[in-house]
Design brief:
This protein has helices spanning 16-31, 49-62, 69-78, 89-99, 116-125, 144-155, 173-183, 214-217, 221-239, 248-261, 391-401, 410-420, and strands spanning 7-11, 39-43, 79-83, 105-109, 133-137, 163-166, 197-205, 270-275, 293-299, 309-315, 322-329, 348-354, 358-366, 374-380, 431-433. By secondary structure, it is α/β, with parallel strands linked by helices. Strand 4, helix 5 (116-125) and strand 5 (133-137) form a beta-alpha-beta unit.
């Protein structure tokens, strides 16, 4: 059995991520009785324990949490604060004192990757890495070389089985439902292959722009921000083989196998776009060539998927906000019960995570009326149920309990970087597109003849 954490150290406790995501998650885990341990917040601001507690309460109010005073009092009792420089050993001595002899401390690094060196060295100096675990926020590098460097830094203090790389996409209820839906319904297995599936589209579109994050985004772009991590993880869940067991590494083994089988992308496989007005955003270079839209066409060289196109696209300032995967099946070999000018549409299975969690299946049925003509009918697979945990609550709980199944493993991270490495630099310039559109029309060429975008 994994060892339960007996202390949580949150580096970057005064930052935006902690305010928006981590405090609500800690409140939920306190209510569940999971986070009744010392929670040591660390940052450079000259705060006190009381200021941190007031900040936590404000963050929960801003997040719309219905605060139970008894639960918050338990959380506040466990919260404490260490102010200091990450390069100063005395900072880590103070953390160790606050950890009160913890034997399995979880260190959460909600800080820029260029500070990892200092923090890891400090954890070692205070003995806080012994038997502990470390949780890392993305990005895991900017390319394969920097990702490998980060791995070497972290592995100085933590073995791979104690490194938990967060991709919050894997913690989402709807994304987890992909695995349940695929492997708990035998009706899908006979047709879940290249003989019946025409292609797969994965879309992550947002109807807003960079929203004050121009300086950050102009150094990252859509490819690094969401495709290399979130959307390739979604691809792996849809394409993976059934794991041999529910063991965390059995699940991660299958996700990595898929990524290993994905062809490395070339410039011909990608279309990049930039919404008009992006260069006017604060912090964005006036001549920026950073993409706010990217579409790529991938192939998976496996027995199940050889020859099936997988198209991923992500963009900001699009016509709507939607995150979904659309599995399109082959058309019947001969159209029957169809007008001459209107062939039956393809069957589609759609997994949507935004704006609502929904699974729908498009089938053909008789159009009402005197004619024997088919029409597309949508079946929505929904049922009333309590909302699940949010992603950060689930992932933080897993880190405290020692369950790595929903976290990215080093080999998977490196395979994802390998897939996109050749299109990180030296590709065609971005193509302007209008706000509120579906992105540059040039991306249509990635679909090929007889295939259209399912959304937007």
């Amino acid at each position: 059995m994994p060892q339960l954490a007996d202390a949580l150290i949150l580096f970057g406790i005064t930052g935006d991520l902690a305010r928006r995501k981590l405090f609500p998650a800690l409140y939920s885990l306190t209510a569940e009785g999971i986070a009744d341990i010392p929670i040591i917040g660390v940052a450079s601001r000259a705060w006190t324990d009381d200021i941190l507690r007031e900040h936590a309460r404000t963050a929960l109010d801003e997040a719309g949490v219905a605060i139970d005073d008894a639960v918050f009092d338990r959380l506040a009792k466990n919260l404490c604060y260490v102010s200091g420089d990450y390069r100063d050993p005395s900072t880590f001595a103070a953390i160790a004192a606050r950890a009160d002899g913890a034997r399995c401390a979880v260190s959460y690094l909600a800080i820029p990757p260029d500070l990892f060196d200092d923090v890891v060295e400090g954890l070692v100096s205070a003995g806080l890495n012994a038997n502990g675990r470390v949780v890392l926020e993305k990005p895991f590098g900017r390319d394969p070389a920097s990702a490998e460097h980060l791995n070497q830094v972290v592995h100085q203090a933590f073995s791979e089985d104690r490194v938990y790389r967060i991709d919050h996409f894997l913690g989402k209820e709807a994304v987890q439902n992909l695995m349940i839906f695929r492997f708990s319904n035998t009706i899908l297995e006979p047709v879940w292959n290249r003989r019946y599936i025409r292609g797969v589209q994965i879309t992550m579109a947002e109807d807003f722009g960079v929203e004050g994050r121009g300086k950050f985004y102009d150094n990252v772009g859509a490819l690094r921000d969401v495709v290399q991590n979130h959307l390739l993880q979604m691809l792996s869940l849809l394409a993976m083989e059934p794991p041999v067991s529910e063991d965390p590494d059995a699940l991660r083994d299958e996700r990595v196998k898929v990524l290993r089988a994905v062809h490395s992308l070339t410039p011909a496989d990608v279309v990049r776009g930039q919404y008009i007005g992006y260069r006017d955003e604060p912090g964005v270079a006036v001549d920026s060539d950073m993409e706010t839209y990217v579409a790529v066409r991938l192939g998976i060289d496996s027995w199940r998927w050889a020859g099936v196109p997988w198209v991923i696209r992500a963009g900001k300032a699009m016509s709507r906000t939607v995150t979904e995967a659309v599995v399109e099946f082959d058309r019947p070999p001969r159209p029957l019960f169809a007008d001459i000018d209107c062939a039956p549409g393809p069957n589609r299975l759609i997994f949507r995570t935004k704006p609502d969690e929904d699974i729908s299946l498009s089938l053909q049925a008789k159009e009402p009326g005197p004619s024997m003509v088919s029409e597309s009918v949508e079946f929505h697979l929904q049922h009333d149920r309590k909302p699940g945990r949010d992603a950060y609550t689930r992932l933080l709980s897993a880190a405290l309990e020692g369950d790595p199944s929903l976290f990215a493993r080093q080999d998977g991270v490196m395979e994802a970087w390998r897939i996109v490495d050749d299109i990180l630099e030296g590709v065609d310039p971005v193509i302007p597109y209008a706000r509120g559109s579906g992105g540059p029309r040039e991306a249509d060429r990635l679909l090929g003849e007889g295939w259209a975008w399912a959304t937007l």
